Amino acid sequence: MKIALVAPPLLPVPPLRYGGVERVVGVLADGLHARGHDVTLFAPGDSRVACRLVPTVPSGLWNEGFHPDPAPHFARTTAMVLDAAADFELIHSHLDQYGFDLAESSPTPVVSTIHGRTDIDPIAGAIASHADIRLVAISDSQRILAPQGNWIATVHHGLDFSGVAAGSGRGGYLLFVGRLSHDKGIEEAVELARGSGHRLLIAAKALDPREREIYENVIAPAVDEGVVDFLGEVDEAERDRLLGAAMATVMLSRWPEPFGLVAIESLATGTPLIATRVGALPDIVIDGRDGYIVDDVAAGVAAVTLIGGLDRARIRARALERFSAARMVDDYVAVYERLLAGRVHSDP
């Protein structure tokens, strides 16, 4: 198949550090290319992929400290793709609502994977007003929050775990990896550490003003108490090492996570999750087998006492099967084949 993949202009594919969408697009691009498909990626010029690259901006905008409205750069991206649309059999957009006009205007079939929240605007409103666009969800919970969308499939993310080793879980600590954000439940994670009597290691950046505020008000006092060790942002190898040695990874999100790459990265090392019953986390974590789904901090504290009874080898084996790069590529190829055969319909 001749396939165009379209990534946001914000970060290179794959990203140097943070950037979930770009990591997934990179895995998909390389996986499709390895299977012999003719793949062209529209993405920032500093992207590093095996397939053909068409630069939409010289380098990822966020890498250059860009903060203004990125909408004009998304519009330029979609215009470039539209100009070349006839060269492809299929276009796969990862632009969320920014790609909807492309989907409606393109003479070539377009499928759009939605990576963001579907319960609030701008994505919720855009889905409601573009009811015919073919959408792929990354979790069932994402679809439930926008039932008016033309969802043709759910494809869970997959990553290349070939270099990820099984972890021992003997570090004696709990781990938080992600953004310093109230939505991510950072205050609850600290309270869980206090209540359980186990240290919480936090691997996250604290650079912008909102992150610095959370660091000063929540993290720094807990560091002074000896409850928290703050590590800052870490690279991929260090992240995997930290995940593998943790007793459990803590994801007490307050918001409906569309997916949660940290969750599958943790499970791939064999480290269980203590996660809230929101968004995609219950889709990823099999309660009582991959960790525990909890409703509050008190339940999380109780879950810590049970973590040692879980089988880490089985957790890892399930994750490597359910969330592999190969499985994700298989699922997307199946979507593409259905679309090109004219057999795509709304998937209830």
Write the layout of secondary structure elements.
Elements: E1 2-6, H1 20-34, E2 38-43, E3 52-55, H2 71-83, E4 90-93, H3 100-105, E5 110-113, H4 123-129, E6 134-137, H5 140-144, E7 150-154, E8 173-177, H6 186-196, E9 199-203, H7 209-225, E10 228-230, H8 236-245, E11 248-251, H9 261-269, E12 273-276, H10 281-284, E13 291-294, H11 297-304, H12 312-322, H13 325-340
Parallel strand pairs: 1-2, 1-4, 2-3, 4-5, 5-6, 6-7, 8-9, 8-11, 9-10, 11-12, 12-13
Structure description:
The chain is α/β, with parallel strands linked by helices and 348 residues long. It folds into 2 domains: 2-160 and 324-340, Rossmann fold (3-Layer(aba) Sandwich); 173-322, Rossmann fold (3-Layer(aba) Sandwich), CATH 3.40.50. Helix content is 38%, strand content 16%. It contains 13 helices and 13 strands. It has a 7-stranded parallel β-sheet, with helices on both faces. It is globular. The mean pLDDT is 93.
Provide a compact summary of the structure:
This protein has 348 residues and is α/β, with parallel strands linked by helices. It has 13 helices and 13 strands.
Neighbour order of strands in the largest sheet? 3-2-1-4-5-6-7
CATH topology name of the largest domain, in short, is Rossmann fold
Strand content: 15-25%
For the terminal residues, how far apart are their CA atoms? Answer: 27 Å
- CATH class of the largest domain, named Alpha Beta
Radius of gyration over all CA atoms, rounded: 20 Å
